[in-house]
Design a protein that fits this description.
Elements lengths: L7 H4 L4 H15 L4 E2 L4 E3 L12 E5 L4 H16 L3 E5 L4 H11 L4 E5 H8 L9 H12 L4 E3 L9 E6 H7 L4 H10 L6 E3 L1 H5 L4 H8 L8 E3 L2 H10 L5 E5 L4 H4 L2 E3 L12 E6 H6 L3 H11 L2 H12 L5 H12 L2 E3 L1
Parallel strand pairs: 3-4, 8-9, 8-10
Antiparallel strand pairs: 1-4, 2-13, 5-12, 6-12, 7-10, 7-11
Helix pairs in contact: 2-4, 3-16, 5-6, 15-16
């Protein structure tokens, strides 16, 4: 996860028993820390009547900007609805945050459907339809004591991107366009990717197979994820680069994201997950968070992520400013 090994979800699909044991250690360590949310916020369009008055709830997140922002949003909405909120966001990786929710060490966070379906639930093949994948995850995770609320359209999945400058020449819109260009002019299609993405079947090799393209090894350049954006934007060493669809650097660096028109990459839609006992006690949480999820889109995430990753703002303040602007909560 961001900033290092951002896609933990790709690396823990095997050996879940060992990973779970590690998670216990990580969550046990990470959850000793945390601080109360002291913001002076009150209900806006959600939380009227303070239905969580008297509740004491803990929010968590993984340790990359987007997920921290989303965790802060949950906490601020809970706070505006009357709850005392303990902020335990920014846990290391996916598994530790997952275990915190599953065991009840934390009450709520935003999780991704693809992460759950592939990493936690052990499936190798994603479900193409986003709603059906969410429904399958929701139903399968009930036995683990995890409640999934309705998902957002925010989809933090893989993609290939090209600079607008270079795309003025090639006019690429889809990955099928890339495949056609690779057949017509093989030397033109150079790709910058992370090492792991270059070798996984759900990464570049699988994408090539799905789209009927075969890129020469010399056309594939492996590097750190952060460098990919710079290389695609500011150099001629890579025509295309592996990106994450909600990354704020996409717009900041004037990149065009190519449509995965054959739906090869899994859906990673963000949805609130709640510890089952917490939701049983406070079912009103659904009414508080459903409107938030309905407003979260990939484009919104790009803007908010850029405020943190490009402009250097604090995730908590980014979350609060946006919630106030959207009318979900009020200050003071």
């Amino acid at each position: 996860m961001r900033p290092v090994n951002r896609r933990t979800r790709r690396g823990v699909r095997a050996g879940l028993a060992g990973a779970a044991a590690l998670a216990l250690l990580l969550s046990g360590c990470g959850l000793k820390s945390g601080s109360p949310m002291v913001d002076d916020v009150r209900p806006g369009s959600v939380g009227k009547g303070e239905p969580l008055d008297g509740a004491s709830l803990t929010v968590t997140s993984k340790n990359f900007s987007e997920n921290i922002i989303l965790g802060q949003m949950i906490g601020l909405i809970f706070k505006a609805a009357g709850a005392e909120v303990l902020d335990r966001t920014n846990l290391p990786g996916s598994i530790s945050a997952r275990e915190a929710i599953r065991q009840g060490d934390a009450d709520a966070m935003y999780e991704y459907t693809g992460t759950a379906w592939i990493t936690y639930l052990g499936h190798s093949k994603p479900i193409v339809d986003p709603l059906k994948q969410w429904q399958a995850v929701r139903d399968a995770d009930r036995k683990n004591g995890v409640v999934w609320l309705p998902q957002s359209t925010l989809n933090n999945t893989y993609a290939l991107a090209i600079s607008k400058k270079n795309n003025a020449k090639y006019h690429l819109k889809t990955l099928s366009d890339v495949a056609a260009l690779a057949k017509k002019n093989p030397s033109a299609v150079t790709v910058c990717v992370e090492n792991e993405f270059a070798s996984r079947n759900d990464g570049l090799p699988g994408m090539e197979k799905a789209y009927g393209m075969s890129l020469p090894a010399s056309n594939i350049k492996k590097m750190d994820a952060g460098i990919v954006y710079t290389q695609v934007s500011k150099s001629n060493s890579c025509l295309l680069g592996e990106v994450f669809t909600t990354d704020g650097r996409i717009k900041a660096m004037n990149l065009d994201v190519l449509d995965d028109n054959k739906h090869f990459f899994p859906n990673y839609n963000a949805a609130p997950v709640i510890h089952a006992a917490t939701f049983e006690k406070y079912p009103v949480i659904a009414a508080l968070l459903d409107p938030l999820s309905a407003r979260l889109t990939t484009e919104v995430a790009q803007v908010l992520n850029a405020k943190v990753d490009v402009e250097g703002e604090d995730p908590h303040e980014v979350a609060k400013d946006w919630l106030v602007k959207e009318g979900f909560i009020k200050e003071g």
